[in-house]
Structures are given as structure tokens and as C-alpha cells.
Design a protein that fits this description.
Length: 260
């Protein structure tokens, strides 16, 4: 049995789902987060050793797991994840001296985990299509079914340089507002979810919407068909009403089988 199959078996075992032991719940979170890193590698959404995914430590409001800086997404294991608090303190004794985290990753992810206790998982990417749309003044256009999932439901954060300054936190928080997705202007994409599965599904929809937009704007010569605002809003509400956590979990388990 390979490493990934072991990860998935633990993640989806009934015993792990029902366990009240905090340590076993945290182990499950690490296994699932490591799987998500490998998932993004499978879909070519990594950027060398940069970009990052984090997951809240279950049962806490001020602790999260994030990748050790320097580990490639496709080789991520639970041992490569570092537990930190929103003040930047490394909480894993064995990691204090051996592993480091990306400073920009900490600034971005700590902001969301500190401000949005309803969200568990945060993903930030630098994909070519995501950055391309982030460079367009119009932002995400409501021109595809994928994009309409985010109609009036996405934030925008103006570029302030590499996110190394803690002062940027207030703007990140304000610009995300109540949404689960945000375009970082001239930078990339950020999505979140109540679960790892929901965050993954949000990313796949947003990434595909950006890919579609890049293709359309490159070939349309400005002649683009836009659905009416009423249809756009109706479609966004259909997503909200029909694609809950159960649907996200179904997609997630299917994708886990794909990369096994």
C-alpha cells in the first residue's frame, strides 16, 4: 500500500471521523492537508516552493497547520506540516529548530484564520490563469457557468508588494469580507472553505473560470456574450442551494481516487 493510499484510508475511516480524541483529530487534519498539497501538485497548481495551503487545527481558533518552506507539493507528508499560532509561534516542539515557514504565507493565512473562524482551510495559488485574471482591471468576468459561482461573491485585494508586512492583514481581512474567494490583484488567487473538500472545490471552480476567461479574452476580440444580471444571480444561488458540504466531500473523495 502506497503512502497516499494510507493517508486516504485514515482520512475516511469511520473511526477517525467519530473519534473524540483531540490528537487523533489533529492527525486526521494533517493527513488530509498533506493529501490536498499532493492534489494541487497533480493539477499543476504549485509554484516551485512558493504558495501555500493551511488548515485550522480542529478545536482551536488561533492555531493552524501550514507547509514547511522548501518542501515541494508533490512530496508533502504530515511530517512536513508545521503547527503555528496566529502570532507566528511554532507550536510543534520538534519543529522549532528544524523547519521554517514562508513569511508571506504566514501573513496571508494567519489573517484569514484569525478573522474567519467559520473557515477551516485556506489555499493560495500563483497559477498562470489566476495571475492573468488578477492583472485585468475587470477582474473575474461573469461569462461562464464556473465564474457564476462567484457572482458578487468574491473579494479583491490590491497589490501591496510581497506580503511580508503584518500591516497588510487589515486590508486582507477587509477585502475578503464574508466571501470564500478573493483575487489578489497582480498576484494570484485565494480561496477558503469550511472543510478541506470545500476549499478544494472552490479552487477548482475559480481556477477553471480563470482559464476560460483567459481563453475567451484572447480569442473574442471583445465580442463576448454576458448573461443578464438576473441569470447570473440565479445561477450563483443555485450553486449555494445545491452544492453543500456533502457535494464537496463527494468530489474530494473522487479526486483522491484519481491521484492514488
Amino acid at each position: 500500500m502506497n503512502k497516499l493510499l494510507q493517508i486516504l484510508k485514515v482520512c475516511f475511516s469511520p473511526r477517525s471521523e467519530k473519534s473524540g480524541d483531540i490528537s487523533s483529530v489533529e492527525v486526521k487534519a494533517k493527513l488530509e492537508l498533506a493529501t490536498l498539497y499532493r492534489m494541487l501538485a497533480h493539477f499543476h497548481m504549485s509554484d516551485l516552493i512558493d504558495t501555500h495551503i493551511s488548515c485550522r487545527v480542529p478545536g482551536t481558533n488561533d492555531q493552524f497547520l501550514i507547509n514547511s518552506y522548501g518542501v515541494l507539493f508533490h512530496e508533502m507528508t504530515p511530517e512536513n506540516l508545521v503547527k503555528v499560532d496566529v502570532n507566528g509561534q511554532v507550536l510543534d516542539t520538534q519543529h522549532n529548530q528544524t523547519l521554517r515557514i514562508n513569511r508571506a504565507g504566514f501573513v496571508i493565512h494567519s489573517t484569514i484564520h484569525d478573522a474567519r473562524h467559520d473557515l477551516s482551510c485556506v489555499i493560495h495559488t500563483h497559477t498562470p490563469a489566476g495571475i492573468a485574471v488578477a492583472c485585468q482591471k475587470s477582474g473575474l468576468l461573469p461569462i461562464s457557468q464556473h465564474a457564476l459561482k462567484f457572482y458578487n461573491r468574491i473579494g479583491y485585494h490590491d497589490y501591496e508588494g510581497i506580503a511580508l508586512d503584518l500591516n497588510e492583514r487589515k486590508n486582507l481581512e477587509a477585502n475578503l469580507r464574508q466571501h470564500q474567494a478573493m483575487i489578489l490583484r497582480n498576484h494570484g488567487l485565494l480561496v477558503a472553505g469550511r472543510t478541506v473538500a470545500e476549499a478544494f472545490l472552490n479552487l477548482m471552480y475559480l481556477e477553471r473560470a480563470c482559464q476560460i476567461q483567459v481563453n475567451v479574452t484572447a480569442t473574442s476580440q471583445g465580442d463576448i456574450n454576458f448573461p443578464s444580471p438576473e441569470v447570473c444571480e440565479r445561477t450563483a444561488r443555485q450553486y449555494e442551494e445545491s452544492e453543500g458540504l456533502d457535494h464537496a466531500e463527494l468530489v474530494w473523495k473522487s479526486m483522491c481516487r484519481l491521484i492514488n
